[in-house]
Design goal:
The chain is mainly α. It is built from eleven helices and two strands.
């Protein structure tokens, strides 16, 4: 984050915000700058990427599903935007430690112990390390003594939209993001690569909530995509992984996505619409609302 902070100091904070007498490397100034940048960056990534996904990728037919809540998108955004500032507080502490030089981040490729191959290796190891850590943190958050306090709010969104991606309780959000910040304190990592991976992580987090269940067949057993993660929201005890299915398979929590078997949310909606067409307008006469509710409950039971 020192690269981002340096650019912000040069073009914004130093000329327009802070007095010239306040050195750029003064700790309090760095903390304040990081706090602003972290919150601003999180909001831009979440709202910007979330909006792109929502309008360009998300299948809006999913909003017809009986588990899709009234005003859900607005509620997801409100919850996320309330949580992100709280998540930023401990995150800034870790960014501050990076800026002060306590991490193993480096500026130039030749500073890597292995040069360019080390750069590639660090990218791969980052993905596998964070995937492993998030799997176990995620399972921990599902423990019966922990779940209702911290992780349950995220499972309110059984059929998530892209805006559910960051709609976590602050403790939940920080814990699941912690592996990304721990990695550069344990292993060498190029600063620009770290920033790129950080943005990529946010893109991926949104993508597994975007309702686009398509995945090339060879990747379906390996990659934890939106279809896999939607089943986690629906069935609770499966598919905890972030990028890959490896740890779910090792931990015996893997479930082949129902959406790839013709039993997913969109299939549920199609069945409901077929019922509706066969039986006529839902609200066309006495008792129709009760009939509709009965069919919804029947569909829920079939999905479960």
């Amino acid at each position: 984050m020192d690269l981002v902070l340096g650019v912000a100091d040069r073009f914004f904070f130093s000329p327009y915000v802070y007095p010239a007498s306040w050195p750029e490397d003064e700790p309090l100034r760095q903390v304040l700058g990081l706090l602003v940048l972290t919150n601003l960056g999180a909001a831009i990534l979440y709202l910007g990427l979330g909006a792109l996904s929502y309008f360009l990728i998300f299948n809006h037919d999913l909003m017809k599903h009986p588990h899709f809540l009234p005003n859900q998108v607005q509620r997801e955004i409100k919850y996320a935007m309330t949580s992100l500032p709280w998540i930023s507080l401990p995150t800034v502490a870790l960014f501050f430690a990076e800026v002060r030089g306590y991490s193993k981040l480096y500026d130039n490729v030749h500073d890597s112990p292995m040069g360019w191959p080390g750069l590639i290796l660090s990218m791969v190891s980052f993905l596998f390390f964070t995937d492993m850590c998030i799997y176990w943190i995620h399972r921990f958050l599902h423990h019966k003594l922990i779940y209702k306090h911290f992780h349950k709010p995220h499972h309110v969104w059984k059929i998530p939209s892209p805006f559910a991606s960051h709609a976590f309780h602050p403790v939940d959000g920080f814990l699941q993001g912690l592996p990304y910040h721990i990695y550069p304190f344990l292993f060498p990592l190029h600063k620009l690569l770290y920033l790129g991976l950080y943005v990529g992580v946010n893109v991926w987090t949104i993508s597994i909530h975007d309702g686009d269940y398509r995945l090339p067949r060879p990747l379906q057993p390996v990659v934890n995509g939106a279809a896999h993660h939607t089943d986690h929201h629906l069935y609770f005890d499966y598919n905890y992984g972030q990028y890959f299915t490896l740890w779910d398979r090792l931990g015996r929590s893997y479930r082949h996505p129902s959406a790839l078997e013709g039993k997913g949310p969109l299939d549920c909606i199609r069945r409901m619409e077929q019922h509706n067409q066969a039986r006529g307008p839902l609200d066309g006469g006495p008792g129709r609302r009760e009939e509709r509710q009965g069919r919804i409950e029947e569909t829920k039971e079939k999905e479960a």
